[in-house]
Amino acid sequence: xxxxxxxxxxxxxxxxxxxxxxxxxxxxxxxxxxxxxxxxxxxxxxxxxxxxxxxxxxxxxxxxxxxxxxxxxxxxxxxxxxxxxxxxxxxxxxxxxxxxxxxxxxxxxxxxxxxxxxxxxxxxxxxxxxxxxxxxxxxxxxxxxxxxxxxxxxxxxxxxxxxxxxxxxxxxxxxxxxxxxxxxxxxxxxxxxxxxxxxxxxxxxxxxxxxxxxxxxxxxxxxxxxxxxxxxxxxxxxxxxxxxxxxxxxxxxxxxxxxxxxxxxxxxxxxxxx
Length: 274
Hints:
- The radius of gyration is 19 Å and the shape is globular.
- It has 3 domains: about 5-90, SH3 type barrels; about 95-150, SH3 Domains (SH3 type barrels, Roll), CATH 2.30.30.40; about 160-270, endopeptidase domain like (from Nostoc punctiforme) (endopeptidase fold (from Nostoc punctiforme), Alpha-Beta Complex).
- The longest helix has 11 residues, at about 180-190.
- It is built from 4 helices and 24 strands.
- The chain is mainly beta.
- One of its GO terms (biological process) is proteolysis.
């Protein structure tokens, strides 16, 4: 059975690459668009529960439309779902991405001007001009140049990226500085460093590397998986994770976490990134 999270089939229409593989009423090549909203929920069904979120500039293939909603597949990780059509814009070419934990878009190149939107780490913008310490985006808003970097630049250490998000509130299915969950903390940190990463912890466990033998010492940058949870190893005796225990991104002593989570799940995998 195909995983619906990463299978571009709305139930009515499927992407053409699935032709001959699934039984769908209609197939389509889809239409490429970019997220124009600062942040958008990716829903399981039109007006249904949130599974993940997409950030401004994310490229998606629109496969189906139903009323006010569009069914899309995200280019970066293949995740599928429904979002409000009003969140979408043209398929422009971003030039910069946000490298600060968060920033604002301003109405003018002036720090005292009204802010129009908040952007999260790894949101993307197309810069068309400059004024002082501000860069103008293609929709006429302004972002502080200190908070963005060329789209081709990459972070060097995903743990260091994840550490910039300490204190971010926990949010189930969240993918931004406003709120994120365990798998988003892993995905964001790896994407900033130019590494592809699936959206959910079970997909990450299957994709990011082979499990190490039991008893292998943990080191900074490793990942530990439980059923439905993932954490960065930030030091041999410490993890960093977005967790419902503190409702935030926080450090936790490794053995304390293992003991605390044990009634729900043992550690299922210890992975060292390829």
